[in-house]
Records
---
Amino acid sequence: MRFEIPRDALLKPLLAISGVVEKRQTLPILANVLIQLENNRATFTGTDLEIQLTTDIQLEKSVDEPMELTLPARKLTDICRNLPEGSLITFSIEKNRTVVRSGKSRFSLTQLIPQDFPSMDSITAVTEFSMTQGKLRKLLEKTHFCMANQDVRYYLNGLLFDTAGNTITCVATDGHRLALMSTEIDHSLTEQQIIIPRKGVSELYRLLVDSDDGCEIKLNNNFLQAKFDNTTFTAKLIDGRFPDYTRVIPDIDDSNKIMEADRELLKQALIRTSVLSNEKYRGIRFQLSENSLSLTINNPEQEEAEEELEVDYPYQEELEIGFNVSYLIDALNALSDEKVIIRFTNSDSSCLILSKKEQGVKYVVMPMKL
């Protein structure tokens, strides 16, 4: 049995799947990509048992009969990547090996039994809706960086996807900061909260493009499935209860000390002063007085960095508060507006970071004692 696929057509699905396939696997079959051929379609599937990605391409020549095979995903990807652009790749199955040929290159790869390849069943949706890829990508982009990483509170190692009415809200927190973005769609949604695992969020964000192309989403209590272009992405959900994020966000009436600043100038000032910060604690002191912000950082070597900025802060009462400088830089990087608004309550309460143009985006950063 043999078939042919152009190198450029094959590389795209392999690159998409290679992110899902783990380098170290408990089961050898999980290091492989499942290739299914029927008529003039080739379907590629990769999984790590938590995430499954399936994508297909059209073949220039139809195959004589349906066939299945599994090949090492990373080796096949590296072979395709290093072949010349525009080359044609021929696959032929000889005994228990697949021989890959292109021009004067020949590679003999081992294959495992396709029937051993694990597959996630099609899901029965509790909530089903569609939205543009660009809108979904933006939800992930504005929030994913606040997810915890290997926290013992396992439900924080992911992103909350909250649907209600016609609003989708994405929330991420690591216990020290929180990111939230809400957006409206043209569908009435079932009230549901799910937690997408960290790797699932990263892979989905990598695959989506900033376009108006559609994306169909199905949710139930165990899985999220997203279909876009010729790709089906399925992720197992984290079984846990996400904290009530509404209690963490400072009340607008209480956080009545409002600072407005140029986002880029403030970000660059934070980056400069952070050069001398303690690598572990990353603390920075905010000293606010009328239309002035003073930034100060000290480290254990008794070194100090200071910077002053002109800001819009029309209050005579001074305010001094400490933060983790990295959390502030991350939030400012995620915003795209020229101006940033930071609302303070007092020196012991979290600040609320907002954008004038990007409605529905909120960042909360807890204070730290310096």
---
Amino acid sequence: MAGIAVPRQLPPPAAHFTGRADVLATLDEIATGSGDRPPMAVLQGPGGIGKSTAAVHWLNRRATRFPDGQLYVDLRAESGFEPVPSTVVLGRLLRGLGVPGDQVPADLAEATTMYRSVTARKRLAILADDAFSAAQVVGLVPASPDSMVLATSRWRLGRLATYGAGFIELPVLPVTDGADLLAGTVGDGRPGREPAAVAELAGLCGGLPLALSIAGARLVSRPRWSIARMVRELADDRTRLAALDIGAVFDLSYRCLPPATAHAYRRLGEYPGPEISPGLAAAVLRLPGNEATAVLDHLVDAGLLAERGADRYGFHELIRLHARGCAEREEPEAERQAVRRRILGYLARDLH
């Protein structure tokens, strides 16, 4: 395998990366590592939060740490709703490391053994993007403690803690960073002339980097539009998801939910408030309290709901709009009205 080029497989970096100083600093700490195993970091959060963008940005900044290359693999199948088989993933990585295709084992155990042998004395970075399970990531850990695995996932992959992983939950961007991202994307004088509209637009995007980038790109393609016009277009929550063309990002998580959890997701999306308690969920879903809490925790694990405190949960506003849209398409109107009556009944009782 002499003369093989050093693999540089990372996707192109974002043109206007903004904020995330705490995330980048935490990645630096995790990369320092210790002991005889390669460090592992997991960036987690809902679709569109910028996990892959942050990972690529950090890896480009720290490329000299990994002189033997940076490998990239997208762990989600083309269908979007199932993982890529491990043999396929290892085959891609081995070919990227210079193993001829006809020498890559078809057997998973043999491919795993070859991968560990090939990586034993290297300093590599492996970006495992959009992991569906902990098992997918574990199979990609190289043998060298001087390498590093960086995984992204919209799912909570807690089992990776047993392999020493450090977990980073990406928050939404604060309004100031969101405004900076919009201004950088638009790139002309409009953000400077309309600072209040920029802040309002950042708020309507909920600090979600993908939504902010899409809104900025639409403004670039329409140089005669004011930012205030874009704000007016997104102000109607009935059409905001369609205007941002972002619903498919949440579909990837939603379509992987078990039927009962998907049904609960649609029902909970009818509640417009900022926080959902287990009591409210139990009333809406007509479940015992412990079962309602389990459903809420499953939605957290799927990256569709956030923990806001002890026994407090909440949707990102764009995800709530997605849940409501799913209910409009899939639930009978009579059932949706019954859900809203249960919400009102619970809130009335909670006041007394």
